[in-house]
Amino acid sequence: MFQANLTSVTMFSFLGFSHYPKVEIIIFVLCLLMYLITLLGNMILISITILDSHLHTPMYFFLSNLSCLDIWYTSSAFPPMLINFVSGENTISFLGCAAQMYFSLAMGSTECVAICNPLRYPIIINKRVCVRIAAGSWVTGCITALVETVSVLQLSLCGNSVINHFACEILAVLKLVCVDTSKVQLIILVFTILLVPMPVLLICISYAFILSNILRISSVDGRSKAFSTCAAHLSVVVLFYGTALSMYLKPSAIDSKEIDKFIALVYGALTPMLNPVIYSLRNKEVKAAVKKLLIGNSLVLS
């Protein structure tokens, strides 16, 4: 069997959702809408966080970081996918594939780094600490992504350069390799355990403390609103981490290429779209900031 180093391949092709021609156009429209909503929602949040001094708090600093991550994360995969669908080419260069793999892994890994005790942000941390925590998250994500990307791209390819996915997802690219991948799989497994189950555990502990504080609220209406907010937050957490876990911690013997594509749509497009709505745009502080900004702009224009 012909073997070639991945670095000697000049172009890759994507199968995408070609196995589902009847729903391919629906998937395209949904992905386009989700990407545009993701850009709009996250850009609104970043803008008002910068412009409104009342939102210059640790919580909104981290939420604006999350918005930056979501924009970069979705932009690494979905614009090329949408362009390929329109053009009908479904190809990507080696360097383009390497960059796409790296940035999607880096942004996804950075987003997985959990930050707990949000109720105590104003008390326990200041601006300098916020910057250090955010920088640590970004550095961790970028380093782990670099290690994973380099580990995969130095392996040998079995003559097939057709990726059964809509993007250069690391597990999909790994299936093209015909040499022993146990070391690379071990690296991916270690990073996945550190960046997915561990943060989930910390998030659960954090929300356990939050729920215990909610139970102390005397007002029934107050408790109901607080529970509703927590339920919405946890639903997005479960959606993101649950799909990531099912993708990266499933047994290698399970062949689920087609299901993996739809799972990737959930954590790669749906959750970045929901994040600004669930975490920020429903908050009264954000609503007040948006209203204030709109009124100010209308006064300037008049």
Automatic annotation (TrEMBL):
<dbReference type="GO" id="GO:0004984">
    <property type="term" value="F:olfactory receptor activity"/>
</dbReference>
<feature type="transmembrane region" description="Helical">
    <location>
        <begin position="60"/>
        <end position="86"/>
    </location>
</feature>
<feature type="transmembrane region" description="Helical">
    <location>
        <begin position="262"/>
        <end position="281"/>
    </location>
</feature>
<keyword id="KW-0472">Membrane</keyword>
<dbReference type="GO" id="GO:0005886">
    <property type="term" value="C:plasma membrane"/>
</dbReference>
<feature type="transmembrane region" description="Helical">
    <location>
        <begin position="231"/>
        <end position="250"/>
    </location>
</feature>
<keyword id="KW-0297">G-protein coupled receptor</keyword>
<dbReference type="InterPro" id="IPR017452">
    <property type="entry name" value="GPCR_Rhodpsn_7TM"/>
</dbReference>
<dbReference type="InterPro" id="IPR000725">
    <property type="entry name" value="Olfact_rcpt"/>
</dbReference>
<feature type="transmembrane region" description="Helical">
    <location>
        <begin position="186"/>
        <end position="211"/>
    </location>
</feature>
<keyword id="KW-0675">Receptor</keyword>
<dbReference type="Pfam" id="PF13853">
    <property type="entry name" value="7tm_4"/>
</dbReference>
<keyword id="KW-1003">Cell membrane</keyword>
<keyword id="KW-0716">Sensory transduction</keyword>
<feature type="transmembrane region" description="Helical">
    <location>
        <begin position="25"/>
        <end position="48"/>
    </location>
</feature>
<protein>
    <recommendedName>
        <fullName>G-protein coupled receptors family 1 profile domain-containing protein</fullName>
    </recommendedName>
</protein>
<feature type="domain" description="G-protein coupled receptors family 1 profile">
    <location>
        <begin position="41"/>
        <end position="279"/>
    </location>
</feature>
<comment type="function">
    <text>Putative odorant or sperm cell receptor.</text>
</comment>
<feature type="transmembrane region" description="Helical">
    <location>
        <begin position="92"/>
        <end position="117"/>
    </location>
</feature>
<keyword id="KW-0552">Olfaction</keyword>
<keyword id="KW-1133">Transmembrane helix</keyword>
<dbReference type="InterPro" id="IPR000276">
    <property type="entry name" value="GPCR_Rhodpsn"/>
</dbReference>
<feature type="transmembrane region" description="Helical">
    <location>
        <begin position="129"/>
        <end position="147"/>
    </location>
</feature>
<dbReference type="GO" id="GO:0004930">
    <property type="term" value="F:G protein-coupled receptor activity"/>
</dbReference>
<keyword id="KW-0812">Transmembrane</keyword>
<keyword id="KW-0807">Transducer</keyword>
